[in-house]
Amino acid sequence: MVHPPVVLRAHIRYIIVMSVKLLIFDLDGTLVDSSADIAKAINYAFSSYGVSEVSVAETVTLIGEGLTRLIEKVIERKAPGLDPRTLVARFIDYYSTHVSDDTRAYPDVEKVLTALIGYKKAIVSNKTEALSIKVLKALDLLKYFDSVLGGDTLPEKKPSPMPILDVLSRFDMRPEQALIIGDSIYDIEAGRAAGVKTVAALYGYGDPGFWKGADYRVESIEGLMEILDLKAR
After folding, report:
1. Which SS3 state, helix, strand or coil, does residue 154 take?
2. Is the C-alpha dihedral spanning 37, 188, 129, 143 positive or negative?
3. Which of the chain's termini has less CB crowding within 10 Å, N or C?
4. What is the CATH number of the domain that holds 129?
5. Spatial distance between the Cα atoms of 99 and 211, rounded to a whole number of angstroms
6. Count of domains in the chain?
7. Given this model, what pLDDT does residue 5 score?
8. How far apart are CA 29 and CA 47, in angstroms?
9. Do 83 and 26 fall into the same domain?
């Protein structure tokens, strides 16, 4: 018997959903909005150099490739010639004690993470591991995760597939058993390179069109529930 295409598509989606056991989350722009605190840390780092301050809106365009690259971008735009190492150290000095002044989880994040209790969950961020853990602890989110990888945990960070493959290895999972959820092209590229299904968080910091290579798109974190078909269970 030949099934209508819509039935076949639904059946394939059901198989994919039922095979997922591991959820890999980006942090900034996916679970939390940290842009205001990162902007303040950038401005503190550059405050002694007569550099014009970056706005929160501008900061959003800088986030995604890790701390060193973030500082390098500001130098390129505003202060060519400054030493990024000194500025990274100043950023960390300030940000380490101000990670949650204005940082908040996106709406319904805790509700969704609580509902996902049956899944293994990991953070893969390009923020350093120590700062990622600080943010998660400050917002009482660390308890939901089985593993946290930062941009300095391994020799390579997103868009390299290395951190995704490392997480799969830690949990003895195959690529088809995992989803990665993120708000940038780096998340999508890392997931695809690792053979993992990808979910683009459209509500985050991502550049326009970053989601084009993703398998799924969500307008809020609650959209993940629909992808996993949890409302039907």
Report:
1. coil
2. positive
3. N
4. 3.40.50.1000
5. 28
6. 2
7. 44
8. 25
9. no
Rg (C-alpha) for the chain, rounded Å, is 19
User: So which residues are the catalytic ones?
Assistant: 26
In the block, tokens 């390098």 appear at 72
The DSSP call for residue 211 is G
* pLDDT confidence tier of residue 16, bands split at 50, 70 and 90: low
Last residue of a domain, one of 70, 95, 120: 95
* Long-range contacts formed by 141-144: CB under 8 A, 24+ apart: 141/31, 141/32, 141/105, 141/109, 141/110, 141/113, 144/110, 144/113, 144/114, 144/116
What pTM does this model have? 0.90
Specify whether 91 is located in the same domain as 9: no
Average pLDDT over residues 145-174: 98
pLDDT tens digits for 47-76?
A: 999 999 999 999 999 999 999 999 999 999
